[in-house]
């Protein structure tokens, strides 16, 4: 843990190109009018990203930048020797080893992953809100088309009252439109029955998150304005359970996105017209 100082990371990674996600706020996936808007991506030298983190506390910047789900054996191969893969009593096949780096306050929407997950916290803390897979009917799963923000120059491009977005010709099916921090129980009344598990993961701690468990994550930075984590994804231990869960999800959402009932649409106050999204991090 003490090894990954900013000095060590800069010495090890230098100007190596890394994919950085840019967002106008701390939420990197945002449900808007039946689709989900994700952060836009750019290639930066790692040294530039590290400087961005250091400056985040000293000046008001126009955007938030994070390194999300970057594979250790490719982009961050220089740091890979520092990561040891734990062994399970029952052998599991490793799918990916990823690194996550952000500043204070980065948030993720409620979602699930198909992998068994070991989340290892290196710097800062993560607060997780968890829901077991059997609560699926209470979480309003739905297919949502994916868009991303339009970034131009050194800022996001404006469209009327919001920010321009563009269609990615892709759909995601592992997100919930419910904001767990401020749920709209008029639109999502069944969510009132959901029972969360709240966990705070501190530096030096590791969490086993089973496949298909729903989770929302908020990151808290350390004294250097860094939140660093490494996670190891393993293929699901049970194909039978995986197929059962996905069949349950498909049975609960038999409609296409264009046919989503109005009461299940994630509309928000002040939401701009199609092609733009309001700057609201909640």
Number of strands: 18
Broad shape: globular
Considering DSSP H and I runs of 4 or more, what fraction of the residues is helical?
A: 10-25%
State the distance separating the first and last CA atoms. 31 Å
Q: Structural class, please?
A: mainly beta
Low-confidence stretches: 254-261, 263-282
Radius of gyration: 19 Å
Largest sheet: 7 strands, antiparallel
The order of strands across the largest sheet is 4-1-5-6-17-7-15
What number is the mean pLDDT?
Answer: 84
Strand content: 35-45%
- Write the H/E string, N to C: HEEEEHEEEEEEEEEEEEEHE
Give me the number of helical elements. 3
Verbal overview:
The protein is mainly beta and 282 residues long. Helix content is 12%, strand content 36%. It contains 3 helices and 18 strands. The chain has helices spanning 6-13, 46-56, 239-252, and strands at residues 17-23, 29-32, 35-38, 40-45, 64-71, 94-102, 116-123, 125-131, 144-149, 151-152, 155-156, 158-159, 162-172, 197-201, 206-209, 214-220, 227-234, 276-277. The strands form 4 sheets. Strands 4-1-5-6-17-7-15 form a 7-stranded antiparallel β-sheet. Strands 2, 3, 9, 12, 13 and 18 form a 6-stranded mixed β-sheet that branches. β12 and β13 (162-172) form a beta hairpin. The chain is globular. The chain starts with 5 loop residues before the first helix and ends in a 5-residue tail after the last strand.
């Amino acid at each position: 843990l003490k090894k990954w100082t900013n000095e060590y990371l800069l010495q090890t990674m230098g100007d190596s190109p890394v994919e950085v996600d840019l967002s106008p706020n701390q939420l990197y996936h945002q449900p808007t009018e039946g689709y989900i808007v994700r952060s836009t991506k750019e290639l930066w030298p790692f040294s530039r990203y590290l400087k961005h983190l250091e400056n985040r506390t000293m000046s008001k910047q126009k955007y938030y930048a994070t390194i999300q789900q970057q594979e250790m054996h490719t982009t961050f191969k220089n740091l890979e020797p520092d990561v040891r893969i734990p062994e399970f009593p029952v052998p599991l096949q490793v799918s990916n080893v990823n690194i996550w780096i952000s500043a204070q306050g980065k948030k993720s929407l409620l979602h699930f992953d198909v992998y068994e997950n070991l989340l290892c916290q290196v710097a800062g803390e993560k607060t997780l809100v968890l829901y077991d897979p059997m609560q699926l009917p209470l979480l309003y799963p739905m297919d949502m088309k994916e868009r991303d923000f339009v970034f131009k120059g050194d800022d996001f491009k404006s469209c009327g009252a919001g920010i321009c977005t563009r269609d990615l010709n892709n759909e995601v099916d592992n997100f919930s439109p419910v904001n767990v921090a401020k749920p709209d129980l008029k639109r999502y009344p069944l969510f009132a029955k959901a029972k969360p598990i709240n966990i705070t993961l501190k530096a030096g701690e590791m969490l086993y998150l089973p496949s298909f468990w729903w989770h929302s994550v908020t990151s808290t930075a350390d004294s250097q304005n860094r939140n660093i984590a490494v996670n190891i994804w393993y293929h699901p231990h049970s194909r039978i359970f995986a197929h059962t869960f996905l069949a349950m999800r498909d049975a609960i959402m038999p409609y296409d996105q264009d046919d989503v009932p109005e009461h299940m649409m994630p509309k928000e106050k002040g939401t701009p017209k199609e092609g733009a999204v309001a700057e609201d991090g909640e």
